[in-house]
Amino acid sequence: MNRTTATGLLLACLTLTACGSGVSGSPVGVESAPTNTTEAGASSATNAGTACRYKTSTGQPAPEGRDVGKPAERAEDKPATVTLTTNLGAVAIELATDTAPCTTRSIVHLATKKYFDDTPCHRLTAADSLSVLQCGDPTGQGTGGPGYTVQDENPGTLKPSGVGETVVYPRGTVAMANTGRPNSGGSQFFLVYRDSMLPPTYAVVGTIDDAGLGVLDKIAAGGITPQMGEQDGAPTVPVKIQKATVAG
User: Fold this and answer.
1) Range with the lowest mean pLDDT among 18-27, 75-84, 160-169, 171-180?
2) Is residue 161 part of a domain?
3) Which residues, listed in sequence order, are joined to residue 175 by a DSSP beta bridge?
4) Residue 121 belongs to what domain range?
5) Of the four listed, 70, 139, 225, 236, which is most buried by Cβ atoms within 10 Å?
6) How confident is the model at residue 148 (pLDDT cuts 50, 70, 90)?
7) Which residues lie closer than 8 Å to 28 by C-beta, 6 or more apart?
8) What angle do CA 27, 189, 91 make, to 5 degrees?
9) SS3 at position 159
10) What does DSSP assign to residue 232?
11) CA-to-CA distance for 224 and 27, rounded, in angstroms?
12) Mean pLDDT (whole number) for 231-243
């Protein structure tokens, strides 16, 4: 199968919720029941920054014990680093608070509230056109979220891949998964360990340091337990985020 055809098949699953079972319905998607959303109430934050909207996902509540509320709709967005301490090593992510303030604010909120602590990274892909580790779902099934959604902050500066309308998400990028619908991001994110081709509809929330990339390479080398093809499934060596900490 050539690179173009393989990419087409991967992207065909991108907006579907039933491309496979036991994991999310697309390489960087999340399964989702039909969801009604309601506007979040006004924030009482005193440091006014970018105005953000976080909508309640009434059809997909947070998993039991993981309802940590919503981020502030207005807050001061300072440079920050989130470190994911996993059972296989630490992955430090410098957040893109300048280009994706609402999405990174959500990541900081969830990390500070320990939402990501003791959660698995449930999916690993290894295609030439898509090489990512997906995390952020406490259920480990690719269906979980925080009980709210985040407005889109799609990247505008990624280079075209030369294949259809896709762009290159470079090695070391961290971006948010979604269901394929507008404004449907939640808590799931993916870490790119090899340049990957995707539509520019996934908010870039940060970049991984060199040591963290070494950890990702080790995870990828451990192999995949196939679930949606030989190059798509659970990491053969289980990966767990033991804790997520914020500095900055």
Assistant:
1) 18-27
2) yes
3) 190, 204
4) 3-14+53-62+77-247
5) 70
6) very high
7) 14, 130, 132, 134, 175, 177, 178, 190, 198, 202
8) 115
9) coil
10) E
11) 14
12) 98
Q: Tokens 């496979």 appear where?
A: 20
Instruction: With CA atoms as reference, report the closest residue to 91 among 191, 233, 175.
Output: 191
Distance of alpha carbon 86 from alpha carbon 236, whole angstroms: 15
Q: How confident is the model at residue 29 (pLDDT cuts 50, 70, 90)?
A: low
Contact (Cβ atoms closer than 8 angstroms) between residue 210 and residue 204: no
Cβ pair 69, 113 in contact under 8 A: yes
The answer to whether residue 149 is domain-embedded is yes
For the CA atoms of 188, 172, 248, 68, the dihedral, rounded to the nearest 10 degrees, stands at 0
pLDDT digits 0-9 by tens, 123-147: 999 999 999 999 999 999 999 999 9
Q: Is residue 28 part of a domain?
A: no
Q: Which residues pair with 126 in a beta bridge?
A: none
pLDDT of 208 above 90: yes
Residue 143 CB: number of other CB atoms within 10 A? Answer: 20
Phi then psi for 77, rounded to 5 degrees?
Answer: -95, 100
CATH number at residue 161: 2.40.100.10
Query: Is the residue at 22 inside a domain?
Result: no
Number of compact structural domains in the chain:
1
Parallel/antiparallel/unpaired status of strands 81-86 and 240-247:
antiparallel
Which tokens is 146 given?
């925080």
Q: Which of 27-31, 99-103, 137-141, 157-161 has the lowest mean pLDDT?
A: 27-31
Please, which residues have CB within 8 angstroms of residue 111's CB and are 6 or more apart in sequence? Answer: 82, 244, 245, 246
Q: 233: which 2 tokens?
A: 């499934």
